[in-house]
């Protein structure tokens, strides 16, 4: 399940400046690295060839603050 999806930037853009896009970030809840990779394989960007799944980095993450099954707003 995708929890959070967004763009990663090179730096904070100045007002009116186009954000300097660096890549994508997806936070998923998965039982293992392989399960996380399966989630990514099903994403529209992976299926359409936008993402290079061989270059994906899977980085374990532990959330410090949650409310039930949802992150804080």
UniProtKB/TrEMBL annotation:
Residues spanning the membrane: none
Lineage: superkingdom: Eukaryota
Gene3D superfamilies cross-referenced by the UniProt entry: Dimeric alpha+beta barrel
Name the UniProt record assigns to this protein: YCII-related domain-containing protein
Biological source species: Aspergillus avenaceus
